[in-house]
UniProtKB/TrEMBL annotation:
This is laccase. Signal peptide: none annotated. One of its GO terms (cellular component) is apoplast. It holds the Pfam family Cu-oxidase. Keywords: Apoplast, Copper, Glycoprotein, Lignin degradation, Metal-binding, Oxidoreductase, Repeat, Secreted. InterPro entries: Cu-oxidase-like_N (IPR011707), Cu-oxidase_2nd (IPR001117), Cu-oxidase_C (IPR011706), Cu-oxidase_fam (IPR045087), Cupredoxin (IPR008972), CuRO_1_LCC (IPR034288), CuRO_2_LCC (IPR034285). It catalyses: 4 hydroquinone + O2 = 4 benzosemiquinone + 2 H2O. It comes from Vitis vinifera (Grape). It comes from the Eukaryota. Transmembrane segments: none annotated. The lineage of its organism: Eukaryota, Viridiplantae, Streptophyta, Embryophyta, Tracheophyta.
């Protein structure tokens, strides 16, 4: 890892062996200068080896540690073969969105062989965020955690944990991820499912990774869903988790057996090691809400092991956590679409010539409506789903804002009609900062992996692509 620090670090020493197979960190303190070297590296997973795009040769990439209110300068060197941008997911970037990462939206991409300095302005954020590539499907392997601690002299709004552990959930394809994307574009279908889910870069039992815990101690798990298009259940066998934060903000504590985490989301949860000393599975499993046409997700369960310290004989075999029974996924049953094929003798087979009406798809016009919002006003957004047959969950990300979900339901929001597989939901939020914001999709599927739904500018001029377009194509 290439690393230079200008002002020093006030963080505890880093364990070079990592936790749960998680590699190095970048520790920063007041305007530290960090280097991210984007390059290819060879990695072996699922008994096959391929070159993947990495940062500093690590997968997942290094963790950036900072404190609330700090500003960090990161120099990104692109030594890969394709354009790259780095996005600081969940960082508000007040009055400085020009190095925020979305290529051709707030900045030009960094071309191979080029360098670009990006400024990370941490204002109100506190908790777990993350960074990732924002070009094509490179986010599959180019990502890492951002951990923002309280300011000096302040504390967590919950009892201080004995230790903190970052956990990054992801996906792995044996083939090149951009080749998977290109194949999906060529056929018009959904891209091929990943070959495995990952916990901190490892696919599970074949490559077991574990973390030792002490009975009676409390651990803060900083969980990030870096998967491209999979909502995931996450749980630890026979343990409860208390959610104390999400997406860089603290929340009212909520204790549950499992959490559901969508692509791009982060959760801070407290885990109390209060069970009998043993080995316990930590597991992540795909969540699906669509009753049909769900043959495109990875229906495996990936695991890691929480191992109590002490002298005892571990249970064998280990039990998996309990996940919800309703629409939890079709992972554990056999047959097409997750349904058992009946074992019956066939006495006759009849084929029918079906008449299929032609489907005439029309390309919708690109929306050009712009809403100018007043400073400190409260805005309400209604999202209306329109899928009639194979509706899927679709996470939305309002970058730089915290908001509340005040209502959701099935059917059309403003009419009374037939209730189909259509969902609407309402998000109110306040406009606290006068600069460009985006409402975007955090689920990579289809032609445009990161589509901007709305841009929310203020009354100040915007210099899109500021700073690095001299090294890129024409804006």
């Amino acid at each position: 890892m290439i690393f230079r620090e200008q002002y020093g670090s006030h963080f505890p020493p880093y364990d070079p062996h990592g936790v749960f197979g998680y590699p190095g960190v970048i520790e920063s303190f007041m305007h530290a200068f960090n280097f991210l070297l984007v390059k290819e590296a060879s990695y072996t997973r699922l008994c096959s080896t391929k070159n993947i795009l990495t940062v500093n040769g690590q997968f997942p990439g290094p963790t950036i540690y900072a404190k609330k209110g700090e500003t960090i300068i990161v120099d990104v060197y692109n030594r890969g073969k394709e354009n790259i941008t780095i996005h600081w997911h969940g960082v508000n970037m007040p009055r400085y969105p020009w190095t925020d990462g979305p290529e051709y939206i707030t900045q030009c991409p960094i071309q191979p062989g080029s360098k670009f300095s990006q400024k990370i302005i941490l204002s109100s954020e506190e908790g777990t965020l993350w960074w990732h590539a924002h070009s094509d499907w490179t986010r599959a392997t180019v990502h890492g955690a951002i951990i923002v601690y309280p300011k000096n002299g302040t504390k967590y709004p919950f009892p201080k944990p004995n230790a903190e552990i970052p956990i990054i959930l992801g996906q792995w394809w044996k083939s090149d991820v951009n080749a998977v994307r290109d194949e999906g574009l060529a056929t018009g279908a959904d891209p091929n499912a990943s070959d495995s889910l990952l916990i901190n870069g490892q696919p599970g039992d074949l490559y077991p990774c574990s973390k030792s815990v002490d009975h009676g101690k409390t651990y803060l798990l900083r969980i990030i869903n870096a998967a491209l298009h999979e909502a995931l259940f996450f749980s630890i066998a026979k343990h409860k988790m208390t959610v104390v934060g999400t997406d860089g903000s603290y929340t009212k504590p909520l204790t549950r057996d499992y959490i559901t985490i969508y692509p791009g989301q982060t959760f801070d949860v407290l885990l109390e090691a209060n069970q009998l000393p043993d080995h316990y599975y930590m597991a992540a499993k795909t969540y699906s809400i669509a009753p049909v046409a769900q043959n495109f997700y990875d229906n495996t369960t990936t695991t890691a092991i929480v191992q109590y310290r002490g002298y005892y004989t571990p249970s064998s075999p280990l039990s998996l956590p309990h996940f919800p029974a309703y629409n939890d996924t079709n992972a554990s049953v056999q047959g097409p679409m997750g349904r058992d094929s009946p074992q019956r003798s066939t006495t006759s087979v009849r084929f029918y010539q079906l008449i299929i009406f032609p489907l005439e798809y029309q390309t919708p016009e690109i929306g050009t409506e712009v809403r100018v919002l007043e400073y400190n006003s409260t805005v309400e957004i209604v999202f209306q789903g329109t899928n009639l047959v194979a509706g899927t969950h679709h996470p939305m990300h309002l970058h730089g804002y915290s908001f509340y979900l005040v209502g959701w339901g099935f059917g059309n929001f403003d009419k009374i009609g037939t209730l189909c597989a259509i969902i609407w939901w309402i998000l109110p939020f306040r406009v606290p900062s006068p600069f460009l914001r985006m409402v975007g999709c955090n689920q990579i599927r289809g032609i445009q992996p990161w589509s901007v739904v709305h841009a929310l500018p203020c009354r100040t001029p915007c210099d899109l692509g500021h700073g690095n377009c001299v090294h890129s194509e024409k804006w």
